[in-house]
Structure formats: structure tokens, C-alpha cells
Amino acid sequence: MHSWLRGAAIAIASAAAAVVVSQMMRNPVAGQASDAGIARAADGKPDLNGIWQALGTAHWDLQDHQARSGPVLELGAVGAVPAGQGVVEGGEIPYQPWAAARKKENFDNWVTRDPEVKCYLPGVPRATYMPFPFQILQTTGDIVLAYEYASASRVIRIGKADPAPVDTWMGQSLGRWEGDTLVVDVTSFNDQTWFDRAGNFHSEALHVVERYTPAGPDVLNYQATIEDPKVFTRPWNIRLPLYRRQDTNVQLLEFKCVEFVEEMMYGSLRKKTGNEKPFSAARLRWP
Predict the structure, then answer these.
(1) Which of 61, 178, 234, 257 can bridge 31 by disulfide, Cβ–Cβ 3.0-4.6 Å?
(2) For position 8, what pLDDT does the model report?
(3) Interior CA angle at 263 toward 284 and 107, to 5°?
(4) pLDDT of res. 73
(5) Rounded Cα–Cα distance for residues 64 and 86 (Å)
(6) How far, rounded to the nearest angstrom, does the alpha carbon of residue 25 sit from its chain's CA centroid?
(7) What's the pLDDT tens digit per position in 57-71?
(8) Between 160 and 197, where is the model more confident?
């Protein structure tokens, strides 16, 4: 073999090997994280402490969607919905026929139906990809997740726990480690939360299994398997990355949204003066 041909073959083989290694670093075997730069806690588990945030438009719509005008026309481009790529594996949310019709009704009436508009707790997995950061506080035992939105929080109990006494907005979270992946099994939900602003919803039979896998020193691969036999024909998955905030002196701030919705929800109870200018539903349009 000519020397130049031998050199080219070696170069091609080296490049192919580099590609394989790079792909393995980006896509480690399930439950295993690349050790490149990943901090570890005293017990050897990945150190997830910090403030994390999702980027993208999953909070608007879990599925692929075009840019569109918002519900308040006077806000123009400021209130418009950005286009976004979906985070649902396969692209489809497998609704039962009646539930697909309900989802469309929710979409058409987003402003009046979405629990987020009323500052209710966001639920799981929605709290993870809202446009607000959240903080993970990890110990050798339980793990606390604190969310900036509405000061929501939940405790991930590592190991066994007694059944939840009642259904709640954020459910009950039980965690375990599978290699370097934190697996969280969440049950005991009420039926009051949505998955996004597009009207995707669930019943009280919702069961979510979350997986947090480090993909680098400041990146988590987040996966959630969603099961609800009352609403969907089969379980389905979402996947998206989470990024550890690197801002100087970064900290979780407050978004106490109750005061922002009092007029909308309770303004009708105010004593009438005769000079009120009622909010006109004609100013709303969706989509």
C-alpha cells in the first residue's frame, strides 16, 4: 500500500474512532454517566446540588408547534407564542378519543382553564420545564426540589415511604439510584394540573417516572415516562436537557404570583363604585 493511502486509511480510522468515543460520551449507557468533569457527593453519587433550568418551549407546548399570536392581541409580538420543537418521543401524545377532544377544548380556552394562569401549583413534570429555575438540595438521604414558580417544592424520599394520605398537586415522590441515574417514581396526584399551556392534561390516575442522568458537569438528561390509563392509550415519554446555572451569585428568587391573579379571580367581589371598566373577553383570541 502506498504511504499516502496508508496515511489516509489511518486518518479515516482515527476520525471514526473519535466519532464513536464522542457519541459514547454524549449518549452513555442507560444509568451510567460519563465521568468527564462530573462532581460527586461523599457517597459517590453524582452531585446534583445547584440551580437548574430548562431552555426551549416545552412549557408552551410539549409537541412541535408553529409561532402564533397570543391570547391578548394588544400585546403584539411581546405576547406571541414562539415556535418550538417537541420533546415527546415519537411526537404523538396517545390520547383516548374523548380525551383528545378535551385537550382541544382546553387549547381553545387556555386563558380561562390553565391552572398556571391562576397561580396554582404546577405539578410534575411541568414544574421541571417551566421558564423558571429550580434548585436541587441533595443529601445522603432525601433530596429536596425547590421551584421558583409559586414557591412550589417537593421532597424525594429515597427508599420506602408510607402511602400518601391524600392526593396533591405535586404528588408523592419516591427516589432510588440506578447507577448514576436518579429515578423518581411520582404518584398520588390530583387531576388539577396540566402538562403545558397547550391544554395537555391528565386525571388523578397519573403516574410519572422521572430519570435524571448527568451528561456532563453542568447538564442533566431529563426523561419522564407518563402513564394514565384513564386518559391515554399507552405510556409515553418526554426528554429534554437541564442546565446548571452558572451566573455569579446565582440564587433562587421569589415568584409569588398570587397577588398577580387576585383581580382576575376575585375582582368581581369588590364593592362596586359605578366607574368600573370590565375586562372584555372580546380582546382575547386563542390561538
Answers:
(1) 178
(2) 41
(3) 35
(4) 86
(5) 4
(6) 24
(7) 999 999 999 999 988
(8) 197
Nearest to 233 by CA among 140, 101, 128, 100: 100
pTM of the model as a whole:
0.83
Take residue 17 and report the three cell numbers written for it.
474512532
Where residue 207 falls (left for φ over 0; alpha for ψ -120 to 50; beta otherwise) is: beta
> Which contiguous run of DSSP H or E holds residue 11?
helix 3-26
- Contact at 8 Å (CB) between 28 and 34? yes
Burial class (CB in 10 A: 0-12, 13-18, 19+), 55: exposed
C-alpha cell at 284: 382575547
Q: What is the DSSP string of 129-165?
A: HSSS-EEEEE-SS-EEEEESBTT-EEEEEES--PPPS
Label residue 280 by pLDDT band (50, 70, 90): low
71-126, pLDDT tens digit by residue? 888 889 999 999 999 999 999 999 999 999 999 999 999 999 999 999 999 999 99
Query: Between β-strands 172-178 and 143-147, what pairing exists: parallel, antiparallel or unpaired?
Result: unpaired
Our CA angle for 47, 55, 118, nearest 5°, is 105
State the greatest distance between any 2 C-alpha atoms of the chain, in Å, as a whole number.
96
φ, ψ dihedrals at 50, nearest 5°: 145, 180
